Sequence to fold (606 residues):
Amino acid sequence: MSLRVSDLKVYYKTLKGQVKALDGVSFEVGDREILGLAGESGCGKTTLGKSLIRMDGRMRHIGGTVELDGEEMPIGDDRRMNAFRFHEVSLIPQYSMSALNPTRKIGKMVAELLHSRGVALDAGKLRGRLDAVGLPHEVLDRYPIELSGGMKQRVVMVVSTLLDPSLLIADEITSALDVSTQKAVAGALAAFRDDGLVKSMIFVTHDLSLTYQIADTIMVMYAGKLAEKAPAKEIVEAPRHPYTRLLINSLPEVGVRYADRKLTGIAGSPPSLLNPPKGCRFRDRCPLAFAQCEQEPPVVEVAPNHSVACWKA
Amino acid sequence: MLKLDNVTKVYRVGAFGGKTLTAVGDVSFDVRPGEVVSLIGESGSGKSTIGKMILGLTPVTGGSITLDGVPVAPGKEYYRHVQGVFQDPFSCYNPVFKADRVFQMIKEAYYPGVSAKDWAVRVNAAVRDVRLDPDQVLGRYPHQLSGGQLQRLLIARALLLDLKLLIADEITSMLDASTRIDVLNLLAELKERGLGVLYVTHDLSLGTYLAERTVVLRHGRVVEMGETDKVFGNPLHPYTRQLLAAVPRLHASWEEAEPVTDCPYHRGEASGGLFEAEEGHFVACARLESCPE
Fold:
Protein backbone atom coordinates (compact mmCIF):
# COMPACT_ATOMS: atom_id res chain seq x y z
CA MET A 1 0.00 0.00 0.00
CA SER A 2 1.55 3.25 -1.11
CA LEU A 3 -0.46 5.84 0.80
CA ARG A 4 -2.60 5.25 3.87
CA VAL A 5 -4.60 8.13 5.32
CA SER A 6 -6.42 7.42 8.59
CA ASP A 7 -9.06 9.67 10.10
CA LEU A 8 -7.34 12.83 8.86
CA LYS A 9 -8.68 16.07 10.29
CA VAL A 10 -7.45 19.41 9.00
CA TYR A 11 -9.20 22.61 10.08
CA TYR A 12 -8.73 26.20 8.94
CA LYS A 13 -8.28 28.75 11.67
CA THR A 14 -10.41 31.84 10.98
CA LEU A 15 -11.62 34.78 13.05
CA LYS A 16 -15.06 33.19 13.28
CA GLY A 17 -13.81 29.83 14.48
CA GLN A 18 -12.56 26.63 12.95
CA VAL A 19 -13.61 25.64 9.46
CA LYS A 20 -13.71 21.87 9.40
CA ALA A 21 -12.50 21.41 5.82
CA LEU A 22 -11.37 17.81 6.32
CA ASP A 23 -13.26 16.04 9.03
CA GLY A 24 -12.14 12.46 9.47
CA VAL A 25 -11.16 11.14 6.05
CA SER A 26 -9.65 7.67 5.68
CA PHE A 27 -8.54 6.04 2.46
CA GLU A 28 -5.71 4.15 0.82
CA VAL A 29 -3.97 4.43 -2.51
CA GLY A 30 -2.28 1.28 -3.78
CA ASP A 31 0.95 0.92 -5.72
CA ARG A 32 0.58 1.97 -9.35
CA GLU A 33 -2.90 3.30 -8.66
CA ILE A 34 -4.41 6.58 -9.85
CA LEU A 35 -7.03 7.84 -7.42
CA GLY A 36 -9.45 10.37 -8.86
CA LEU A 37 -10.82 12.82 -6.32
CA ALA A 38 -14.12 14.47 -7.27
CA GLY A 39 -16.68 16.78 -5.70
CA GLU A 40 -18.07 20.31 -5.90
CA SER A 41 -16.09 23.40 -4.97
CA GLY A 42 -15.62 23.67 -1.25
CA CYS A 43 -15.85 19.97 -0.44
CA GLY A 44 -12.24 19.64 0.73
CA LYS A 45 -10.49 18.26 -2.37
CA THR A 46 -7.80 20.92 -2.54
CA THR A 47 -7.37 20.94 1.24
CA LEU A 48 -6.65 17.23 1.12
CA GLY A 49 -4.06 17.71 -1.62
CA LYS A 50 -2.43 20.62 0.17
CA SER A 51 -2.29 18.94 3.56
CA LEU A 52 -0.30 16.07 2.06
CA ILE A 53 2.46 18.39 0.92
CA ARG A 54 2.41 21.75 2.66
CA MET A 55 -0.13 23.32 4.97
CA ASP A 56 -0.53 27.04 4.61
CA GLY A 57 -0.53 29.30 7.67
CA ARG A 58 -4.25 28.96 8.37
CA MET A 59 -4.36 25.19 8.27
CA ARG A 60 -4.12 23.12 11.43
CA HIS A 61 -3.49 19.40 11.63
CA ILE A 62 -6.04 18.34 14.24
CA GLY A 63 -5.82 14.57 14.12
CA GLY A 64 -5.22 11.46 12.08
CA THR A 65 -2.15 10.04 10.40
CA VAL A 66 -0.72 9.86 6.90
CA GLU A 67 1.57 6.96 6.02
CA LEU A 68 3.54 6.92 2.78
CA ASP A 69 5.31 3.65 1.88
CA GLY A 70 5.03 2.50 5.47
CA GLU A 71 6.55 5.66 6.92
CA GLU A 72 4.49 8.23 8.80
CA MET A 73 4.61 11.74 7.33
CA PRO A 74 4.78 14.59 9.86
CA ILE A 75 2.26 16.65 7.91
CA GLY A 76 1.66 19.14 10.72
CA ASP A 77 5.39 19.93 11.02
CA ASP A 78 6.42 22.24 8.21
CA ARG A 79 10.17 21.82 8.84
CA ARG A 80 10.28 18.04 9.12
CA MET A 81 8.13 17.73 5.99
CA ASN A 82 11.03 19.21 4.00
CA ALA A 83 12.64 15.78 3.79
CA PHE A 84 9.52 14.39 2.11
CA ARG A 85 8.55 17.33 -0.04
CA PHE A 86 9.26 16.75 -3.77
CA HIS A 87 11.42 13.69 -2.97
CA GLU A 88 8.57 11.52 -1.69
CA VAL A 89 5.42 13.50 -2.44
CA SER A 90 4.99 16.20 -5.05
CA LEU A 91 2.21 18.45 -6.30
CA ILE A 92 1.30 19.86 -9.70
CA PRO A 93 -0.56 23.08 -8.99
CA GLN A 94 -3.65 24.23 -10.88
CA TYR A 95 -2.32 27.47 -12.32
CA SER A 96 0.86 26.61 -14.16
CA MET A 97 0.99 30.13 -15.58
CA SER A 98 1.67 31.56 -12.15
CA ALA A 99 3.97 28.72 -11.09
CA LEU A 100 6.77 29.64 -13.49
CA ASN A 101 9.21 32.49 -12.96
CA PRO A 102 8.52 34.95 -15.81
CA THR A 103 12.05 36.41 -15.75
CA ARG A 104 13.97 33.15 -16.22
CA LYS A 105 14.32 30.85 -19.18
CA ILE A 106 12.80 27.45 -18.40
CA GLY A 107 16.17 25.63 -18.40
CA LYS A 108 17.74 28.09 -15.98
CA MET A 109 14.72 28.06 -13.73
CA VAL A 110 14.79 24.25 -13.49
CA ALA A 111 18.51 24.31 -12.63
CA GLU A 112 17.92 26.93 -9.93
CA LEU A 113 15.04 24.99 -8.46
CA LEU A 114 17.08 21.80 -8.26
CA HIS A 115 20.00 23.72 -6.76
CA SER A 116 17.69 25.02 -4.04
CA ARG A 117 16.93 21.40 -3.11
CA GLY A 118 20.63 20.56 -3.16
CA VAL A 119 20.45 18.36 -6.25
CA ALA A 120 22.61 18.70 -9.35
CA LEU A 121 20.84 18.96 -12.70
CA ASP A 122 20.95 15.80 -14.77
CA ALA A 123 20.53 17.19 -18.30
CA GLY A 124 19.94 13.78 -19.88
CA LYS A 125 17.18 12.94 -17.43
CA LEU A 126 15.53 16.32 -17.95
CA ARG A 127 15.53 15.84 -21.72
CA GLY A 128 14.11 12.34 -21.28
CA ARG A 129 11.27 13.75 -19.21
CA LEU A 130 10.54 16.43 -21.79
CA ASP A 131 10.27 13.67 -24.40
CA ALA A 132 7.92 11.76 -22.11
CA VAL A 133 5.42 14.63 -22.06
CA GLY A 134 5.95 15.45 -25.72
CA LEU A 135 7.73 18.79 -25.39
CA PRO A 136 10.61 19.79 -27.72
CA HIS A 137 13.98 20.34 -26.02
CA GLU A 138 13.99 23.93 -27.26
CA VAL A 139 11.55 24.94 -24.50
CA LEU A 140 14.53 25.06 -22.13
CA ASP A 141 15.72 28.17 -23.96
CA ARG A 142 12.34 29.86 -23.91
CA TYR A 143 10.67 32.19 -21.46
CA PRO A 144 7.32 31.10 -19.98
CA ILE A 145 5.52 33.82 -21.94
CA GLU A 146 6.58 32.13 -25.18
CA LEU A 147 4.77 28.90 -24.30
CA SER A 148 1.08 28.08 -24.59
CA GLY A 149 -1.02 27.12 -21.58
CA GLY A 150 -0.78 23.40 -22.31
CA MET A 151 3.00 23.59 -22.74
CA LYS A 152 3.42 25.49 -19.48
CA GLN A 153 1.30 22.92 -17.72
CA ARG A 154 3.54 20.16 -19.08
CA VAL A 155 6.70 22.02 -18.05
CA VAL A 156 5.33 22.19 -14.52
CA MET A 157 4.55 18.47 -14.69
CA VAL A 158 8.16 17.73 -15.62
CA VAL A 159 9.51 19.98 -12.86
CA SER A 160 7.24 18.44 -10.21
CA THR A 161 8.40 14.91 -10.96
CA LEU A 162 12.14 15.45 -11.55
CA LEU A 163 13.05 14.08 -8.11
CA ASP A 164 11.03 10.88 -8.70
CA PRO A 165 8.42 11.28 -5.97
CA SER A 166 6.50 8.24 -4.83
CA LEU A 167 3.18 10.08 -4.68
CA LEU A 168 2.09 12.77 -7.13
CA ILE A 169 -0.89 15.04 -6.51
CA ALA A 170 -2.37 16.74 -9.58
CA ASP A 171 -4.74 19.51 -8.49
CA GLU A 172 -7.27 20.51 -11.19
CA ILE A 173 -4.47 20.67 -13.71
CA THR A 174 -6.66 20.43 -16.78
CA SER A 175 -9.50 22.79 -15.90
CA ALA A 176 -8.00 25.78 -17.72
CA LEU A 177 -7.18 23.86 -20.90
CA ASP A 178 -9.31 23.15 -23.94
CA VAL A 179 -10.38 19.65 -24.88
CA SER A 180 -7.55 18.47 -27.11
CA THR A 181 -4.83 19.90 -24.84
CA GLN A 182 -6.68 18.41 -21.88
CA LYS A 183 -6.45 15.01 -23.52
CA ALA A 184 -2.72 15.35 -24.19
CA VAL A 185 -1.97 16.47 -20.63
CA ALA A 186 -4.08 13.73 -19.05
CA GLY A 187 -2.40 11.18 -21.32
CA ALA A 188 1.06 12.35 -20.25
CA LEU A 189 -0.01 12.07 -16.63
CA ALA A 190 -1.17 8.47 -17.05
CA ALA A 191 2.14 7.71 -18.81
CA PHE A 192 4.06 8.87 -15.72
CA ARG A 193 2.40 6.08 -13.82
CA ASP A 194 2.75 3.52 -16.61
CA ASP A 195 6.47 4.26 -17.00
CA GLY A 196 6.99 3.96 -13.26
CA LEU A 197 8.15 7.55 -12.75
CA VAL A 198 5.74 7.88 -9.87
CA LYS A 199 4.32 5.08 -7.79
CA SER A 200 0.85 6.42 -7.18
CA MET A 201 -1.17 9.49 -8.00
CA ILE A 202 -4.09 11.53 -6.72
CA PHE A 203 -5.90 13.31 -9.53
CA VAL A 204 -8.12 16.10 -8.23
CA THR A 205 -10.84 17.48 -10.50
CA HIS A 206 -14.49 18.40 -10.48
CA ASP A 207 -14.97 16.86 -13.91
CA LEU A 208 -16.06 13.26 -13.39
CA SER A 209 -15.93 12.38 -17.07
CA LEU A 210 -12.26 13.34 -17.26
CA THR A 211 -11.39 11.44 -14.07
CA TYR A 212 -13.10 8.42 -15.51
CA GLN A 213 -10.66 8.42 -18.43
CA ILE A 214 -7.50 8.00 -16.41
CA ALA A 215 -8.31 7.00 -12.81
CA ASP A 216 -8.44 3.44 -11.50
CA THR A 217 -10.44 4.38 -8.43
CA ILE A 218 -12.67 7.39 -7.88
CA MET A 219 -13.33 8.94 -4.50
CA VAL A 220 -16.20 11.41 -4.17
CA MET A 221 -16.02 13.84 -1.28
CA TYR A 222 -18.75 15.97 0.19
CA ALA A 223 -18.36 18.72 2.80
CA GLY A 224 -15.06 17.47 4.18
CA LYS A 225 -16.05 13.83 4.33
CA LEU A 226 -15.82 10.80 2.13
CA ALA A 227 -19.11 10.10 0.34
CA GLU A 228 -18.20 7.16 -1.90
CA LYS A 229 -15.09 5.37 -3.13
CA ALA A 230 -15.07 2.64 -5.74
CA PRO A 231 -13.34 1.49 -8.93
CA ALA A 232 -13.91 4.08 -11.68
CA LYS A 233 -16.20 1.86 -13.72
CA GLU A 234 -18.39 1.06 -10.73
CA ILE A 235 -18.77 4.71 -9.64
CA VAL A 236 -19.99 5.68 -13.08
CA GLU A 237 -22.12 2.63 -13.85
CA ALA A 238 -23.52 1.76 -10.43
CA PRO A 239 -23.18 4.70 -8.03
CA ARG A 240 -24.67 4.02 -4.58
CA HIS A 241 -24.48 7.40 -2.87
CA PRO A 242 -27.27 9.84 -3.88
CA TYR A 243 -24.70 12.64 -4.16
CA THR A 244 -22.64 10.68 -6.70
CA ARG A 245 -25.80 9.93 -8.67
CA LEU A 246 -26.81 13.58 -8.78
CA LEU A 247 -23.30 14.60 -9.72
CA ILE A 248 -23.28 12.17 -12.63
CA ASN A 249 -26.75 13.23 -13.74
CA SER A 250 -25.68 16.85 -13.91
CA LEU A 251 -22.98 16.13 -16.49
CA PRO A 252 -23.86 17.11 -20.02
CA GLU A 253 -22.58 14.73 -22.67
CA VAL A 254 -22.14 15.24 -26.35
CA GLY A 255 -25.47 14.40 -27.93
CA VAL A 256 -27.62 15.20 -24.89
CA ARG A 257 -29.93 18.04 -25.92
CA TYR A 258 -31.96 20.37 -23.72
CA ALA A 259 -35.02 19.68 -25.85
CA ASP A 260 -34.73 15.89 -25.41
CA ARG A 261 -33.55 15.47 -21.86
CA LYS A 262 -33.33 18.31 -19.42
CA LEU A 263 -30.43 17.85 -17.04
CA THR A 264 -30.80 19.07 -13.51
CA GLY A 265 -28.26 20.52 -11.16
CA ILE A 266 -28.16 19.70 -7.46
CA ALA A 267 -30.46 22.10 -5.64
CA GLY A 268 -29.00 24.12 -2.79
CA SER A 269 -25.34 24.50 -1.98
CA PRO A 270 -22.85 22.66 0.25
CA PRO A 271 -23.20 23.50 3.97
CA SER A 272 -20.89 25.93 5.72
CA LEU A 273 -18.08 23.99 7.34
CA LEU A 274 -17.79 26.50 10.17
CA ASN A 275 -20.66 24.75 11.92
CA PRO A 276 -21.35 21.67 9.81
CA PRO A 277 -24.78 20.13 10.37
CA LYS A 278 -25.02 17.08 12.59
CA GLY A 279 -25.65 13.74 10.93
CA CYS A 280 -25.35 13.25 7.21
CA ARG A 281 -24.05 16.50 5.70
CA PHE A 282 -25.81 15.94 2.43
CA ARG A 283 -29.19 15.57 4.16
CA ASP A 284 -30.59 19.01 3.23
CA ARG A 285 -30.05 18.49 -0.50
CA CYS A 286 -30.72 14.76 -0.63
CA PRO A 287 -33.89 13.49 -2.31
CA LEU A 288 -33.78 10.29 -0.25
CA ALA A 289 -33.28 11.82 3.18
CA PHE A 290 -35.24 10.24 6.02
CA ALA A 291 -35.23 10.27 9.83
CA GLN A 292 -32.12 8.15 10.28
CA CYS A 293 -30.02 10.69 8.35
CA GLU A 294 -29.88 12.78 11.52
CA GLN A 295 -27.26 10.31 12.67
CA GLU A 296 -23.99 10.29 10.88
CA PRO A 297 -23.75 7.41 8.38
CA PRO A 298 -20.63 5.25 8.79
CA VAL A 299 -18.43 4.43 5.79
CA VAL A 300 -19.45 0.88 4.88
CA GLU A 301 -17.86 -1.43 2.35
CA VAL A 302 -20.90 -2.55 0.34
CA ALA A 303 -18.92 -4.51 -2.23
CA PRO A 304 -15.22 -5.31 -2.60
CA ASN A 305 -13.34 -1.98 -2.79
CA HIS A 306 -16.62 -0.07 -2.83
CA SER A 307 -17.25 2.05 0.28
CA VAL A 308 -20.23 4.33 0.77
CA ALA A 309 -21.27 6.63 3.59
CA CYS A 310 -25.06 6.54 3.27
CA TRP A 311 -27.81 4.86 5.24
CA LYS A 312 -29.73 4.00 2.07
CA ALA A 313 -26.82 2.54 0.12
CA MET B 1 -31.69 39.32 -36.33
CA LEU B 2 -27.92 39.45 -35.93
CA LYS B 3 -26.01 38.89 -39.12
CA LEU B 4 -22.27 38.64 -39.68
CA ASP B 5 -21.06 39.04 -43.26
CA ASN B 6 -17.47 38.12 -44.12
CA VAL B 7 -16.26 39.55 -40.85
CA THR B 8 -12.49 39.86 -40.60
CA LYS B 9 -10.33 41.07 -37.75
CA VAL B 10 -6.63 41.76 -38.18
CA TYR B 11 -4.51 42.65 -35.18
CA ARG B 12 -1.21 44.48 -35.48
CA VAL B 13 1.39 42.69 -33.42
CA GLY B 14 5.09 42.92 -32.79
CA ALA B 15 7.16 46.02 -32.08
CA PHE B 16 5.57 49.11 -33.67
CA GLY B 17 2.80 46.93 -35.07
CA GLY B 18 5.04 45.70 -37.84
CA LYS B 19 3.35 42.35 -38.27
CA THR B 20 -0.26 41.45 -38.68
CA LEU B 21 -2.24 38.58 -37.24
CA THR B 22 -5.56 37.56 -38.71
CA ALA B 23 -7.61 36.60 -35.68
CA VAL B 24 -10.88 36.20 -37.54
CA GLY B 25 -11.10 35.63 -41.27
CA ASP B 26 -14.19 35.77 -43.42
CA VAL B 27 -16.73 34.61 -40.87
CA SER B 28 -20.40 34.73 -41.81
CA PHE B 29 -23.32 33.43 -39.78
CA ASP B 30 -26.49 34.70 -38.22
CA VAL B 31 -28.42 34.41 -34.97
CA ARG B 32 -32.22 34.40 -35.10
CA PRO B 33 -34.58 35.33 -32.27
CA GLY B 34 -35.32 32.46 -29.92
CA GLU B 35 -32.26 30.55 -30.97
CA VAL B 36 -29.00 29.56 -29.32
CA VAL B 37 -25.99 29.46 -31.62
CA SER B 38 -22.86 28.00 -30.11
CA LEU B 39 -19.48 29.16 -31.25
CA ILE B 40 -16.97 26.42 -30.59
CA GLY B 41 -13.22 26.65 -30.85
CA GLU B 42 -9.99 26.18 -28.96
CA SER B 43 -7.92 28.94 -27.41
CA GLY B 44 -6.81 31.35 -30.09
CA SER B 45 -9.51 30.39 -32.56
CA GLY B 46 -10.97 33.89 -32.49
CA LYS B 47 -14.23 33.01 -30.79
CA SER B 48 -13.94 35.68 -28.10
CA THR B 49 -12.85 38.25 -30.69
CA ILE B 50 -16.10 37.62 -32.57
CA GLY B 51 -18.04 38.18 -29.34
CA LYS B 52 -16.15 41.41 -28.70
CA MET B 53 -16.76 42.68 -32.22
CA ILE B 54 -20.49 42.04 -31.90
CA LEU B 55 -20.49 43.95 -28.62
CA GLY B 56 -18.56 46.79 -30.26
CA LEU B 57 -15.67 46.42 -27.84
CA THR B 58 -13.20 46.14 -30.68
CA PRO B 59 -13.60 47.47 -34.24
CA VAL B 60 -14.14 45.25 -37.27
CA THR B 61 -11.37 45.25 -39.89
CA GLY B 62 -13.49 44.03 -42.75
CA GLY B 63 -17.00 42.83 -43.44
CA SER B 64 -20.10 43.93 -41.59
CA ILE B 65 -22.15 43.07 -38.53
CA THR B 66 -25.79 44.12 -38.61
CA LEU B 67 -28.60 43.86 -36.08
CA ASP B 68 -32.02 43.83 -37.76
CA GLY B 69 -30.39 45.27 -40.85
CA VAL B 70 -28.77 48.19 -39.03
CA PRO B 71 -24.96 48.22 -38.78
CA VAL B 72 -23.65 47.82 -35.26
CA ALA B 73 -23.05 51.20 -33.64
CA PRO B 74 -21.89 50.88 -30.05
CA GLY B 75 -23.84 53.25 -27.89
CA LYS B 76 -26.69 53.41 -25.46
CA GLU B 77 -29.37 52.40 -27.93
CA TYR B 78 -27.39 49.37 -29.09
CA TYR B 79 -26.58 48.15 -25.60
CA ARG B 80 -30.26 48.37 -24.74
CA HIS B 81 -30.72 45.39 -27.05
CA VAL B 82 -27.39 43.58 -26.95
CA GLN B 83 -25.51 42.66 -23.79
CA GLY B 84 -22.62 40.40 -22.92
CA VAL B 85 -21.80 38.18 -19.95
CA PHE B 86 -18.22 36.98 -19.55
CA GLN B 87 -16.21 34.20 -18.03
CA ASP B 88 -15.11 35.60 -14.69
CA PRO B 89 -18.06 36.89 -12.66
CA PHE B 90 -15.83 37.99 -9.77
CA SER B 91 -13.99 40.60 -11.79
CA CYS B 92 -17.23 42.13 -13.10
CA TYR B 93 -18.11 43.57 -9.69
CA ASN B 94 -16.48 46.33 -7.74
CA PRO B 95 -15.62 44.65 -4.43
CA VAL B 96 -16.23 47.80 -2.35
CA PHE B 97 -19.83 48.21 -3.53
CA LYS B 98 -22.79 45.94 -2.99
CA ALA B 99 -23.43 43.57 -5.87
CA ASP B 100 -26.87 45.02 -6.65
CA ARG B 101 -25.24 48.31 -7.60
CA VAL B 102 -25.03 46.91 -11.13
CA PHE B 103 -28.84 47.21 -11.26
CA GLN B 104 -28.78 50.77 -9.99
CA MET B 105 -26.32 51.69 -12.73
CA ILE B 106 -28.72 50.36 -15.35
CA LYS B 107 -31.49 52.51 -13.88
CA GLU B 108 -29.36 55.65 -13.89
CA ALA B 109 -28.24 55.12 -17.47
CA TYR B 110 -31.39 53.85 -19.13
CA TYR B 111 -34.43 54.44 -16.95
CA PRO B 112 -33.86 57.68 -15.02
CA GLY B 113 -37.61 58.40 -15.04
CA VAL B 114 -38.67 55.21 -13.25
CA SER B 115 -39.48 55.68 -9.57
CA ALA B 116 -37.40 53.82 -7.00
CA LYS B 117 -40.40 51.76 -5.97
CA ASP B 118 -41.23 50.61 -9.49
CA TRP B 119 -37.57 49.88 -10.12
CA ALA B 120 -37.36 47.65 -7.04
CA VAL B 121 -40.31 45.66 -8.38
CA ARG B 122 -38.57 45.22 -11.73
CA VAL B 123 -35.29 44.20 -10.10
CA ASN B 124 -37.05 41.64 -7.94
CA ALA B 125 -38.80 40.21 -10.98
CA ALA B 126 -35.53 39.97 -12.94
CA VAL B 127 -33.77 38.31 -10.03
CA ARG B 128 -36.60 35.79 -9.75
CA ASP B 129 -36.35 35.20 -13.49
CA VAL B 130 -32.83 33.93 -13.03
CA ARG B 131 -34.15 31.71 -10.25
CA LEU B 132 -32.52 33.48 -7.33
CA ASP B 133 -34.23 34.56 -4.14
CA PRO B 134 -34.08 38.40 -3.94
CA ASP B 135 -33.87 38.29 -0.14
CA GLN B 136 -30.75 36.18 -0.34
CA VAL B 137 -28.81 38.10 -2.96
CA LEU B 138 -29.81 41.77 -2.85
CA GLY B 139 -27.91 44.03 -0.48
CA ARG B 140 -24.92 41.70 -0.32
CA TYR B 141 -21.30 42.34 -1.23
CA PRO B 142 -19.73 40.32 -4.07
CA HIS B 143 -17.57 38.23 -1.74
CA GLN B 144 -20.68 37.07 0.11
CA LEU B 145 -22.14 35.49 -3.02
CA SER B 146 -21.05 32.39 -4.91
CA GLY B 147 -19.77 32.40 -8.49
CA GLY B 148 -23.04 30.94 -9.77
CA GLN B 149 -25.08 33.61 -7.99
CA LEU B 150 -22.89 36.43 -9.31
CA GLN B 151 -23.08 35.05 -12.83
CA ARG B 152 -26.88 34.85 -12.63
CA LEU B 153 -27.10 38.42 -11.29
CA LEU B 154 -25.21 39.57 -14.38
CA ILE B 155 -27.77 37.82 -16.56
CA ALA B 156 -30.56 39.45 -14.51
CA ARG B 157 -28.91 42.81 -15.12
CA ALA B 158 -29.05 42.19 -18.87
CA LEU B 159 -32.71 41.15 -18.60
CA LEU B 160 -33.69 44.52 -17.12
CA LEU B 161 -33.02 46.03 -20.52
CA ASP B 162 -35.07 45.50 -23.62
CA LEU B 163 -32.81 42.63 -24.56
CA LYS B 164 -32.77 40.92 -27.93
CA LEU B 165 -29.37 39.26 -27.99
CA LEU B 166 -27.12 37.95 -25.25
CA ILE B 167 -23.46 37.18 -25.89
CA ALA B 168 -22.48 34.51 -23.36
CA ASP B 169 -18.70 34.16 -23.52
CA GLU B 170 -17.51 31.06 -21.61
CA ILE B 171 -19.97 31.91 -18.86
CA THR B 172 -19.90 28.48 -17.28
CA SER B 173 -16.20 27.64 -17.30
CA MET B 174 -15.58 28.95 -13.79
CA LEU B 175 -18.57 27.19 -12.29
CA ASP B 176 -18.66 23.62 -11.05
CA ALA B 177 -20.63 20.82 -12.63
CA SER B 178 -23.97 21.22 -10.86
CA THR B 179 -24.12 25.05 -10.95
CA ARG B 180 -23.12 24.91 -14.60
CA ILE B 181 -26.28 23.04 -15.50
CA ASP B 182 -28.46 25.53 -13.62
CA VAL B 183 -27.01 28.41 -15.62
CA LEU B 184 -27.37 26.50 -18.90
CA ASN B 185 -31.01 25.65 -18.16
CA LEU B 186 -31.55 29.33 -17.45
CA LEU B 187 -30.19 30.23 -20.89
CA ALA B 188 -32.53 27.67 -22.41
CA GLU B 189 -35.51 29.30 -20.66
CA LEU B 190 -34.47 32.72 -21.97
CA LYS B 191 -34.28 31.25 -25.44
CA GLU B 192 -37.81 29.96 -25.14
CA ARG B 193 -38.88 33.52 -24.35
CA GLY B 194 -37.55 34.68 -27.71
CA LEU B 195 -34.09 35.87 -26.84
CA GLY B 196 -31.22 35.16 -29.22
CA VAL B 197 -28.13 33.77 -27.51
CA LEU B 198 -24.62 33.46 -28.89
CA TYR B 199 -22.97 30.90 -26.65
CA VAL B 200 -19.18 30.99 -26.93
CA THR B 201 -17.43 27.95 -25.47
CA HIS B 202 -14.63 25.47 -25.88
CA ASP B 203 -16.66 22.70 -24.30
CA LEU B 204 -18.47 20.70 -26.96
CA SER B 205 -20.83 18.92 -24.63
CA LEU B 206 -22.10 22.19 -23.20
CA GLY B 207 -22.42 23.64 -26.68
CA THR B 208 -24.47 20.77 -28.02
CA TYR B 209 -26.73 20.69 -24.98
CA LEU B 210 -28.25 24.07 -25.77
CA ALA B 211 -27.65 25.06 -29.33
CA GLU B 212 -29.86 24.73 -32.38
CA ARG B 213 -26.93 25.60 -34.56
CA THR B 214 -23.21 25.26 -34.10
CA VAL B 215 -20.27 27.07 -35.66
CA VAL B 216 -16.87 25.39 -35.30
CA LEU B 217 -13.92 27.75 -35.62
CA ARG B 218 -10.28 27.05 -36.17
CA HIS B 219 -7.57 29.70 -36.60
CA GLY B 220 -10.25 32.32 -37.05
CA ARG B 221 -12.04 30.51 -39.86
CA VAL B 222 -15.24 28.55 -39.89
CA VAL B 223 -14.43 24.90 -40.54
CA GLU B 224 -17.92 23.52 -40.15
CA MET B 225 -21.30 24.95 -39.31
CA GLY B 226 -24.93 24.05 -39.41
CA GLU B 227 -27.62 22.43 -37.32
CA THR B 228 -26.11 20.92 -34.19
CA ASP B 229 -27.53 17.45 -34.91
CA LYS B 230 -25.95 17.42 -38.32
CA VAL B 231 -22.60 18.86 -37.33
CA PHE B 232 -22.07 16.49 -34.44
CA GLY B 233 -24.14 13.59 -35.70
CA ASN B 234 -22.22 13.52 -38.94
CA PRO B 235 -19.03 15.53 -38.57
CA LEU B 236 -17.38 15.91 -41.95
CA HIS B 237 -14.32 18.01 -41.26
CA PRO B 238 -11.38 16.09 -39.74
CA TYR B 239 -10.90 18.86 -37.19
CA THR B 240 -14.45 18.52 -35.88
CA ARG B 241 -13.91 14.77 -35.60
CA GLN B 242 -10.73 15.30 -33.67
CA LEU B 243 -12.46 17.69 -31.28
CA LEU B 244 -15.28 15.23 -30.72
CA ALA B 245 -12.84 12.42 -30.01
CA ALA B 246 -11.03 14.50 -27.41
CA VAL B 247 -14.14 15.13 -25.30
CA PRO B 248 -14.00 12.98 -22.17
CA ARG B 249 -17.13 10.88 -21.86
CA LEU B 250 -18.55 9.01 -18.96
CA HIS B 251 -19.33 5.63 -20.37
CA ALA B 252 -16.65 5.28 -23.01
CA SER B 253 -12.92 5.66 -22.96
CA TRP B 254 -11.09 8.09 -25.15
CA GLU B 255 -11.05 7.00 -28.75
CA GLU B 256 -8.22 7.78 -31.09
CA ALA B 257 -9.33 10.01 -33.90
CA GLU B 258 -7.48 9.85 -37.16
CA PRO B 259 -4.84 12.58 -37.15
CA VAL B 260 -5.58 15.58 -39.27
CA THR B 261 -2.87 15.69 -41.88
CA ASP B 262 -2.34 17.74 -44.95
CA CYS B 263 -5.48 19.74 -44.90
CA PRO B 264 -4.98 23.32 -46.09
CA TYR B 265 -7.75 24.47 -43.79
CA HIS B 266 -6.04 22.82 -40.90
CA ARG B 267 -2.90 24.85 -41.50
CA GLY B 268 -5.04 27.96 -41.74
CA GLU B 269 -3.79 28.76 -45.23
CA ALA B 270 -6.71 28.15 -47.48
CA SER B 271 -9.55 30.50 -47.93
CA GLY B 272 -12.68 30.05 -49.87
CA GLY B 273 -16.34 29.47 -49.47
CA LEU B 274 -18.13 26.90 -47.45
CA PHE B 275 -19.29 23.81 -49.21
CA GLU B 276 -22.86 22.72 -48.52
CA ALA B 277 -22.60 19.01 -47.80
CA GLU B 278 -26.27 18.52 -47.02
CA GLU B 279 -29.11 20.90 -46.34
CA GLY B 280 -28.14 23.27 -43.53
CA HIS B 281 -24.70 21.72 -43.02
CA PHE B 282 -21.66 23.59 -44.33
CA VAL B 283 -18.07 22.41 -44.36
CA ALA B 284 -15.00 24.38 -45.26
CA CYS B 285 -12.92 21.71 -46.81
CA ALA B 286 -11.51 22.54 -50.17
CA ARG B 287 -10.68 18.95 -50.86
CA LEU B 288 -13.92 17.43 -49.69
CA GLU B 289 -15.04 16.34 -53.12
CA SER B 290 -11.74 14.75 -53.97
CA CYS B 291 -11.16 13.59 -50.39
CA PRO B 292 -10.81 9.80 -50.08
CA GLU B 293 -13.11 9.88 -47.03
Q: What stands out?
A: The helical segments of chain A are 45-51, 106-116, 123-132, 149-160, 179-194, 208-214, 232-237, 242-249. Residues 96-164 of chain A form one domain. Residues 246 and 266 of chain A are 6 Å apart (CA to CA). The first strand of chain A starts at residue 3 and ends at 14.
